């Protein structure tokens, strides 16, 4: 297991990418996504006419779900874009740094998503840069939404278990998540202690208004709104 801090913007290993793209787990992520999007405001504050950018879009499951729900103006950015997703004509997807998305005009987006990805950015400074660029890219009244782990006791215990108790991971899902976690741990172990600064960068930014905030056992859900008139 690597214990040094990973370089910002690095691409995960081919083994990690293959494991993350496992068909069964990809289908699982799709099944769970509609509820998560609803918690962020899908349907009540965000409608299908919105121009949406999915930061760290991975294998495109979120955009796939949004397309099935009627969204058509869908964009994605990731440091690594699988060939199948790059060839999918339903979406406009580019490779690049999620903290500074390329090829998107200022003030053109209604909704920016950063789902289960903040810990990959790991430093409060990079996350603050992401928020700065989101403010620039959003239309007045546009939103940015986050889902990720807080630095809670249950999260720290869970990752201790997955990283250091590998022989006890007996179900297919636990084995899969344990394999994923081994490579994510260098990000997570630097992200979690800095979480108060991360939270300040996203939740307390005075340019945005908190519109939705939900805390569950392992995740927080947060939607911020750019005012119609600049503060």
Can you describe this structure?
With 231 residues, this protein is of the alpha/beta class. The protein has one domain (14-225): Vaccinia Virus protein VP39 (Rossmann fold, 3-Layer(aba) Sandwich). The protein has nine helices and seven strands; from the N terminus they run ααβαβαββααβαααββ. The chain has helices at 14-20, 23-40, 61-68, 83-86, 118-121, 124-137, 153-164, 172-191, 195-203; strands at 51-55, 73-78, 92-95, 109-115, 138-148, 209-215, 220-225. Strands 3-2-1-4-5-7-6 form a seven-stranded mixed sheet. The longest helix is centred in the C-terminal third of the chain and has 20 residues, at 172-191. It is globular. Residues 1-7 have low confidence and may be disordered.
Concise account of the structure shown:
With 231 residues, the chain is an alpha/beta fold. The protein has nine helices and seven strands, in the order H-H-E-H-E-H-E-E-H-H-E-H-H-H-E-E.
Average pLDDT works out at 89
Secondary structure category: alpha/beta
CATH superfamily: Vaccinia Virus protein VP39
Element-level helix/strand string: HHEHEHEEHHEHHHEE
What characteristic shape results from the CA principal axes? globular
Count of helical stretches: 9
Q: What's the main sheet like?
A: 7 strands, mixed
